[in-house]
Design a protein that fits this description.
The structure is a single chain. 28% of the residues lie in helices and 30% in strands. It is of the alpha/beta class and 286 residues long. It has a seven-stranded mixed β-sheet with strand order 8-7-6-9-10-12-11, sandwiched between helices. Strand 11 and strand 12 form a beta hairpin. The longest helix is centred in the N-terminal third of the chain and has 15 residues. It is globular and about 55 Å long.
């Protein structure tokens, strides 16, 4: 949505019958890339704001919730994550969190739109501070094709940090893509994907769970966490494993982690695994 006369940016969520607004001080940048419309704003209370095709992608104030929960639960669930692939994630916040783990030897990020990353480097420099890490690989290409060309059993953790399942990201929510991810993962490998709002997008979450199981993943569960700037303020990431149950995270390693977080810890990890009754019923077709 465009700014109104009172300088409010409003994102309307039709399926939820709601809207979320932030008061804007100024528009810092706006462009049409080869793939999407990108705008950067300075807000009054949430810092800088990135908007893609009218949908809020991140703000300075609360992006840590999303980036920490997209990365640390999966990496602390895997017994020894050395090779990580991030599909999307153009703002590089998830890449930064992944590279806080000293055991990670290589993290490749495959983002289709280079302009997202270049604008993040300019307007959100704290998110991109790990881009020069020697373990990081930045690739501007089609993530679906990248996974298809990956060798069997070559990746320990795949993180799908995508936009909503429309436009360039639509194919990232399909069974053929999930099958390629399952093939590329090592034994014990973990897949995790941003999976929208449990309150507003319950049907989509059911399709994600079913699609992952149809693709050969043995165990699938969703993590729940707050995200104020996204529709409903309640967001999720769905995690899956092919060859065993997902299992417990590495509690001692979480408690002794050699880096600071703002949201993630052992308690928030375990709490994120809890889900309300309506969610369980929806997954069972009820």
């Amino acid at each position: 949505m465009a700014l109104d006369d009172a300088n409010w940016f409003t994102e309307v969520c039709d399926e939820g019958g709601t809207a979320f607004s932030l008061r804007i001080r100024e528009r810092l940048h706006e462009e049409q890339s080869d793939y999407q419309h990108i705008a950067i704003y300075e807000t009054e209370t949430f810092g800088r704001l990135m908007v893609i095709d009218g949908f809020i992608m991140l703000s300075d104030r609360d992006n840590f919730l999303y980036h920490e929960m997209m990365s640390h639960p999966a990496l602390y669930t895997h017994p020894a994550p050395r090779r990580v692939l991030i599909i999307g994630g153009g703002d590089c916040g998830t890449l930064r969190e992944v590279l806080k783990h000293p055991e990670v030897e290589r993290a490749d990020q495959v983002e289709i739109d280079e302009r997202v990353t270049r604008l993040a480097e300019e307007y959100f420099p704290t998110l991109t501070e790990a881009n020069d890490d020697e373990r990081a690989g930045l690739h501007f290409a089609d993530g679906i094709e990248w996974v298809r060309r990956s060798e069997d059993n070559s990746i320990d953790v795949i993180i799908v940090d995508s936009t909503d399942p429309i436009g360039p990201a639509e194919g990232l929510f399909d069974v053929p893509f999930y099958k390629e991810c399952a093939r590329a993962l090592t034994s014990g490998g973990i897949f995790v994907q941003q999976s929208e709002s449990p309150l507003y997008h319950t049907r989509l979450l059911g399709e994600i769970h079913n699609g992952l199981r149809d693709a050969g993943f043995l165990d699938v569960l969703s993590l729940h966490f707050p995200q104020p700037v996204y529709p409903s303020g309640w967001w999720s990431a769905t995690m899956a494993r092919t060859d065993d149950l997902i299992g417990e995270p590495r509690e001692d390693d979480i408690r002794d982690r050699p880096f600071t977080t703002q949201y993630y810890n052992y308690g928030t990890h375990m709490g994120a695994l809890a889900a309300p009754e309506f969610f369980y019923r929806s997954l069972q077709g009820g």
